[in-house]
Write a structure and sequence with these properties.
With about 200 residues, this protein is mainly β. Helix content is about 10%, strand content about 45%. It is globular, with a radius of gyration of 17 Å.
């Protein structure tokens, strides 16, 4: 049994697209830099930053609308602007635990990219601006990257039971990194890419 309330009657939330939150909200996950130490390429830059502070990289709020027969879930993520070395702040990235589960993301503020990669190693990057809707098919890992000067905020719609598999993509990393060069986002091959 999951710990969430059952929603047997229709309910509504109020979303703030500027702040990247909604009310009422009971489920919040905060990722500080120290929680994301394994995903950044420049480990020296990471350690240098952590000596000084441990900033919030992103916050994820979600509302699991669980009924006896469904578990449609709404989420909103706010990635703060920032970099580790020259690599932009980003989400941890995950596959869904259940291989038949898709997801829809909608960018509402800021700019960046959604990085996607499947188990066969096919890589895609979708450029985001406010209003961009991206369908993530089943079997594609996904990670959002904030390349702007302000927050990147996006909505998520998925089934709660899709689950999160963070470990698989954490081991291999995505095929490409998104770094800043001459004030612009540039893709480079991931030098730490491990096979298998
Ligand atoms: Fe997902």
């Amino acid at each position: 049994m999951h710990p969430y309330n059952l929603y047997t009657i229709p309910v509504s939330l109020q979303v703030n697209f500027d702040l990247g939150n909604f009310e009422p909200c009971s489920e919040l996950i905060v990722r500080n830099l120290s929680d994301l130490s394994s995903i950044f390429n420049d480990q020296q830059a990471l350690q240098d930053l952590l000596v000084v502070e441990n900033p919030v990289v992103y916050e994820f709020r979600y509302a699991p609308f669980v009924t006896p027969v469904s578990d449609m879930t709404f989420g909103i993520t706010r990635i703060n602007p920032g970099k580790v070395g020259n690599e932009y702040y980003m989400t941890k990235g995950h596959f869904h635990e259940h291989p038949d589960q898709p997801e829809i993301y909608t960018c509402v503020r800021g700019c960046g990219y959604l990085l996607l990669e499947n188990h066969a190693g096919e890589f895609k990057a979708e450029q985001w601006q406010p209003g961009t809707v991206t369908h993530i098919p089943p079997g594609w890992a996904h990670r959002a990257v904030n390349t702007g000067d302000g927050p990147l905020i996006f909505l998520a719609f998925y089934h709660l039971s899709a689950g999160h598999d963070y470990g698989t993509i954490e081991k291999t990393g995505f095929a490409s990194l998104l770094i800043e060069q001459e004030d612009k986002p540039v893709f480079i091959s991931n030098p730490a890419r491990k096979s298998g």
